[in-house]
């Protein structure tokens, strides 16, 4: 099916939250399919925590309250960077 051409430059953002096995991945796949079938282009920012955990970072590395705080701060900055970058691509 041919994609529709939209004149609008409005970027809509959806945030899916929930605990492990809460259905986020399933909901994301369904939402993506639903919107793509209607001609929308979809960008999905990766989850920063999953990127870190699946590429060598470990909770065992966080040995102090200070290291946990530093990790959380860097994690949030990384997630915000991903989201900003994908929003710019979408514009």
Tell me the span between the first and last alpha carbons: 23 Å
Overall structural class, as computed from helix and strand content, comes to mainly alpha
Query: Which runs of at least 5 residues are low in confidence (pLDDT < 50)?
Result: none
- What gyration radius follows from the Cα positions, in whole Å? 17 Å
Biggest sheet: strands, sense, closure?
Answer: none
What would the average pLDDT be, to the nearest integer? 88
Query: What is the beta-strand fraction?
Result: under 5%
Number of helical segments? Answer: 3
Percent helix among the residues?
Answer: 40-55%
Order of helices and strands: HHH
Overall, the morphology is elongated
Number of strands: 0
Structure, described:
By secondary structure, the protein is an all-alpha fold. Helix content is 51%, strand content 0%. It is built from 3 helices and no strands.
Key attributes of the depicted protein:
91 residues; mainly alpha; 51% helix; elongated
Give me the secondary-structure topology.
Layout: H1 24-37, H2 48-53, H3 65-90
Could you give a quick summary of the protein structure above?
This protein has 91 residues and is an all-alpha fold. The chain has 3 helices and no strands.
């Amino acid at each position: 099916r041919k994609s529709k051409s939209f004149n609008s430059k409005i970027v809509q953002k959806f945030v899916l939250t929930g605990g492990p096995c809460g259905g986020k991945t399933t909901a994301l796949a369904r939402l993506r399919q639903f919107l793509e079938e209607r001609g929308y282009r979809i960008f999905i920012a990766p989850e920063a925590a999953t990127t870190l955990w699946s590429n060598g970072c470990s909770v065992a590395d966080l040995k102090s309250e200070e290291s946990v705080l530093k990790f959380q701060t860097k994690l949030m900055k990384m997630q915000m960077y991903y989201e900003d970058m994908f929003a710019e691509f979408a514009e």
